[in-house]
Amino acid sequence: MILAVLSALAEPTRLEAMRLLADGSEHCVCELMRKLGATQSRMSRHMQVLDRRDAQWVRYRISPELSPSLARLVEAALERPIMVTERAA
After folding, report:
1. Residue 4: how many CB atoms within 10 A of its CB?
2. N or C: less crowded end of the chain, CB within 10 Å?
3. Does residue 26 contact residue 51 with C-beta atoms inside 8 Å?
4. pLDDT value at position 37?
5. Which residue from 53, 41, 40, 49 is spatially nearest to 18, judged by alpha carbons?
6. Fold of 2-78
7. CA–CA separation, 88 and 65 (whole Å)
8. Domain definitions of the chain by residue range
9. Any alpha helices (H) in 1-89, and if so which ranges?
């Protein structure tokens, strides 16, 4: 699992997206596209492991099931603390 997280964070687009997600909120792909200057297909490809489908909307967030050691790893990569919130019902 740690290698998968490190691999994901090594890609610049995903790293920047994770910095946006560190606020603990869910973000739609259109917001990430706008802030990162990426196309929808590029964002979807990079972020498919983090998605939550809500009808036609896809939302991304940092999982509340993230183990403490992985959370520390993500925080070190982002150089900032992450906020993790429970999934919306």
Report:
1. 10
2. C
3. no
4. 93
5. 49
6. Arc Repressor Mutant, subunit A (1.10.10)
7. 14
8. 2-78
9. 2-9, 12-21, 29-36, 40-47, 68-78
How far is Cα 31 from Cα 63, in angstroms, rounded to an integer? 18
pLDDT in tens, 13-59: 889 999 999 998 888 888 999 999 998 888 877 777 666 666 677 77
Sheet holding 27-28, edge to edge: 27-28, 57-60, 51-54
Helices 12-21 and 40-47, axial angle in degrees (round to 10) = 80
Token pair listed for 7 = 């691999």
Q: How many residues are given for the chain?
A: 89
Strands 51-54 and 27-28: unpaired
What gap in Å lies between CA 54 and CA 52, rounded to an integer? 7
The pLDDT of 58-78, averaged and rounded, is 87
pLDDT band at 4 (very low <50, low <70, confident <90, very high): confident
